[in-house]
Design a protein that fits this description.
The chain is an all-alpha fold. The protein is about 90% helix and about 0% strand. The protein contains 3 helices and no strands.
């Protein structure tokens, strides 16, 4: 088997795996967003219970939940590489 044949087979295997990889990454991201949303709700309730004004608690909880975006994740990964 020549080197070109092996490279072609590797490309086919990688191409066949791409839908699974994309689905896995996307579903992991959605799970993370759901957990962040739940955590923001707990964060908000705890701050209100401890006497923080509701509007300030909501602003901070929303800011916490919005920190988990695709853009921020990609930015943090690329900034660590170089």
């Amino acid at each position: 088997m020549s080197r070109d044949d092996r490279n072609g087979e590797a490309f086919i295997v990688i191409a066949a795996m791409m839908p699974y990889i994309i689905w896995s990454v996307f579903s992991a991201y959605l799970r993370m967003k759901k957990r962040a949303s739940r955590s923001a709700d707990v964060f908000f309730k705890t701050m209100v219970q401890n006497g923080m004004p509701r509007h300030e608690a909501r602003r901070l909880a929303d800011e916490y939940a919005s920190a988990f975006t695709i853009r921020s994740i990609v930015r943090s990964v690329t900034s660590r590489r170089g």
